Amino acid sequence: MALGLAVVGGLVALLALGTAERLRAQEAPDPAEATEAAGQSPESAVPEPEDRPSTDQPLPYAVAIEGELPDELREQLEEVSQLIALQERPPNSAAALRRRVRDDVERLESVLRSQSYFDGTVESRVSTDQRPVQVTLTVTPGMEFLLESYTIDYRPADPGPMVPQDAADLDLQIGMRAEAEPIKRAEDRLIRRLGRHGYPYAEITRRRYLVDHERTVMEAEIVVQTGPKVDFGPLAIDGLTDVSEDYLRRILQWPEGTVYDAREMEQVRRRVIETRLFETVLLQPPDDPPGDGVAPVELTLSEAKPRSVTLGAGVTTADDLFLLKAGWEHRNLFGEGEKLSLSAQSSLLVQELGAEFRKPNYLRYDQDLLASASFTNEQSDAYDALSVEAFGGLERRFTENWRGRGGLAFELSEITDQFDSSRFALVGVPLSVTYDSRDNLLNPTEGVELTLGTTPWLNSDNLEDFFIVNETRGSTYWAPFDDDSFVLAARGRFGSIAMADTREVPATQRFYAGGASLRGYQFRSVGPLDADNDPTGGLSVVEVGLDLRFRVMEDYGIVPFIDGGQVYDQRLPDFGQELQWAAGIGLRYYTSIGPLRLDLAFPLNPRPEVDDFFQFYLSIGQAF
Question: Whole-structure pTM over 0.70, yes or no?
Fold first, then answer.
């Protein structure tokens, strides 16, 4: 119904403030008179049903919209019809029904005019001699009216060629249908363009839309008071308590002294919001035009709470059975948006403590300083390991969607696997680039996420031990109906380790699949196995996945899915080897922080004495 209401809103804004009609070279003072001149009296078009005393008994009715109408127009008429919308709540008298019919006739005629059918008529017929009462609305749209001219009159003077001068500059075409919505959008576009070139106080003071019924055309004339041309003045900031004002001004890069540009205002506002340090951000120039042509701007802020605690849990039929998570975060540690995150997680297989530090806008606006450290104890069928890891580096945002990361990584570990027990002191240089256009991290419905990464590793205890881990991950999301009622989600993963054999690569750096990465199979169980059917990991990996995410009702969803993957001993995948496939069904309960996920997955080509009949997973967020 939103489309129909938008159409009516566009009509009111377009017609009620200045529409006139011209019939045989005579200008009509308002749309109502033009309607009567065309022989469309609303009152005469509504037959009076038989009057009868009001009772408390509802008067049920059936309604039909008839006429040769384009499908889109018929849909709009049905969407705005209150006779249809209120049919389950019938009136208590014939007089009340008569008022409802009269209102609907006017409403439908407004839709016709908004869609360029200025000669359109709506006639009503009410049959009271039957129950339910039959209401018939016969719509005759008539000819489509075309836009013949579009004139912009700037006062007191034309600002010049940088602002719109004609219809083409506003994405209108002479000869197009004279629909209300694109013409209203053109007005909004006109004011925005002026605001980008030093005229934030511009306003449309007069609109004249002249309709010629004989030639079925419309002429448009817009009068704009530009107001004075202004420059950016000083920026005043109000509301800071814990955030450093010097830091905020450094990242805002306020363009004082330049010509006022609404796009610069939006960019400054976006930079404030991206700090995630504020609950309220209000950026506005003075209400009245400045006398000296310099507009001081005020930034009013309300700081958000800097600390938060998080708790999480997951349940699965895999060997680790459950996963518990806890975290603490401070997002303004030293007054310049520094974020410190402490985390702990535990399952039957893995226990980990971690810390991450991020200093935003380090040395430049779009660059962050990163540091992290973790301690992990792991006991699984693949290997047992006690390890300490650390990383330090930089992350740079190249564009809105592209970012890159690089730095130094260290890993000290003691590992026992199927081959031997060893200690490693690894030094690595992780490098990655990521493209991310997803609209939501926990429940994406559109966009793409792609990460390409490579990490050369060197064992400092033995300089001959050198290998390179390369991995690419990606996912994409498509909502064909422009909402989240159905989302097609697909993912893929490809990895390869070069310059070493399986035994020469520490078990913590090899590739594994199964569990959350490949539903339907035990944690890390897909790929090469030893004599006891324990996974050894591999030098390459391939994974694919497809979700069909159906949202039913408001808070629930059903997700059929299929996953496939394999891990290989070779440095490149052997595509002649069969992938392990699994399929399943998932349930979703959508909460304010993300969907609660329950997935039940079944291996399609299970390995005898290795794979179970099914696996299930319970957690927060989509699988990918």
Answer: yes
